[in-house]
């Protein structure tokens, strides 16, 4: 807020997309006892008291967001609990929460009603949802559109965040959050179709990792808001650089997916390209000049580690020389990039090399560094 930004928070219940081996070891719950392949837990079919408890918890969470001075919330349906009530692939219930589309939407409507009851009508409430699961037996596009229409008719939501696909399998997640080797913004035209159908602001995220694509999406009326999640993990200063006219210096997301892998393994979103992301307490994003005496620094090797060392030392105000045995910067990433699907990985070392050149780093290629060369 101090910098003029609005702040929002996603609210979600993971449903079956979690594990019971955490926290208080409560059973995983879902509309029906249908196992999710990715997380492999056997969920308990939700009972009436589970439904009442979770509906109230959504409202309580939304109220805490408002009391905490957030400007709005986004209810996350996308493959989590709300969405699993909608999809025939998971919801096998025969009571008032299963069967017809009206019944399958009942829980979501109750959640939104409770949220509005606790935050009022003058608070931003949006929803992130899949309009098409791209899954046999799952939610199809026509039914997804009807769900969107019903949500609009309630008058309780202010925007859509559109997704296409499912996340219940590793292959599904790879399509939903596309990796390197996949075309830029693969679901953008699909999101544009949704935009034409509804008179509500629309947001979308799926491998929109460069400003040119984001600008195109807004200019052509495909989206109102562009969500660039991994792009901001790679470079949190995207907006500031655009405002300063430094768009050509944005550190690019190359779609390696280390951030996603790291979340599932160690629970922290680190970046293979930006070592400061997730380590801000010990590593700065913006390197400042040292107030100490200038030094001469020699770096041996122009791979990603050598280039980053050279960049940081030069930004600190030191005179840096890099020796590289081959005729090209990039190191082992040049080998990885020979697989066409991974050619984007060169964006890491190309950006680092450009930054080093801007900072006046001196490079010697075809130079196998020995003791005398370093000392000279």
Q: What report would you give on this structure?
A:
Strands 1-4-5-6-7-8 form a six-stranded parallel beta sheet, covered by helices on one side. The chain is built from 15 helices and eleven strands. Helix content is 37%, strand content 12%. Strand 9, helix 12 and strand 10 form a beta-alpha-beta unit. The chain is elongated, with a radius of gyration of 24 Å. Helix 1 (48-67) runs parallel beside helix 4 and helix 12 runs parallel beside helix 14. It has helices spanning 48-67, 81-86, 101-104, 106-119, 141-154, 170-176, 188-197, 211-219, 229-234, 238-243, 258-266, 304-315, 333-336, 346-358, 371-375, and strands at residues 8-11, 29-30, 44-45, 72-76, 124-132, 159-164, 202-204, 225-226, 296-300, 319-323, 362-364. By secondary structure, the chain is of the alpha/beta class. The model has no long low-confidence stretch (mean pLDDT 95).
């Amino acid at each position: 807020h101090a910098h003029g930004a609005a702040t929002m928070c996603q609210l979600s219940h993971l449903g079956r997309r979690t594990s019971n081996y955490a926290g208080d070891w409560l059973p995983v719950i879902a509309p029906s006892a249908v196992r999710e392949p990715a997380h492999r837990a056997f969920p308990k079919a939700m009972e009436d008291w589970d439904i009442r408890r979770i509906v109230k918890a959504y409202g309580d969470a939304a109220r805490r967001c408002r009391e905490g001075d957030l400007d709005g919330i986004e209810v996350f349906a996308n493959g989590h609990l709300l969405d699993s009530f909608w999809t025939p692939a998971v919801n096998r219930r025969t009571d008032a929460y299963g069967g017809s589309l009206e019944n399958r939407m009942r829980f979501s409507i109750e959640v939104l009603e409770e949220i509005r009851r606790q935050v009022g009508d003058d608070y931003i409430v949006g929803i992130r949802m899949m309009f098409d699961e791209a899954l046999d037996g799952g939610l199809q596009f026509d039914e997804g559109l009807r769900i969107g229409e019903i949500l609009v008719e309630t008058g309780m939501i202010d925007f859509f965040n559109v997704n296409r696909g499912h996340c219940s399998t590793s292959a599904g997640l790879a399509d939903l959050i596309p990796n390197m080797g996949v075309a830029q913004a693969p679901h953008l035209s699909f999101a544009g179709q949704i935009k034409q159908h509804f008179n509500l602001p629309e947001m979308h995220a799926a491998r929109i990792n460069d400003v040119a694509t984001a600008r195109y999406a807004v200019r052509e009326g495909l989206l109102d808001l562009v969500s660039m999640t991994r792009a901001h993990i790679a470079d949190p200063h995207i907006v500031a650089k655009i405002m300063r006219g430094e768009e050509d210096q944005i550190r690019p997301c190359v779609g390696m997916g280390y951030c996603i892998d790291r979340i599932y393994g160690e629970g922290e979103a680190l970046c293979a390209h930006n070592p400061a992301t997730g380590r801000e307490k010990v590593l700065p994003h913006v390197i400042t000049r040292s107030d100490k005496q200038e030094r001469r620094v020699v770096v041996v090797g122009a791979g990603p580690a050598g280039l980053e060392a050279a960049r940081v030392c030069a930004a600190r105000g030191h005179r840096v020389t890099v020796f590289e045995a081959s005729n090209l910067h990039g190191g082992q990433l040049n080998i990885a990039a020979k697989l066409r699907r991974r050619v984007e990985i060169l964006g890491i070392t190309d950006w680092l090399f450009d930054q080093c050149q801007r900072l006046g780093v001196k490079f010697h290629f075809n130079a196998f560094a020995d003791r005398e060369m370093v000392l000279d």
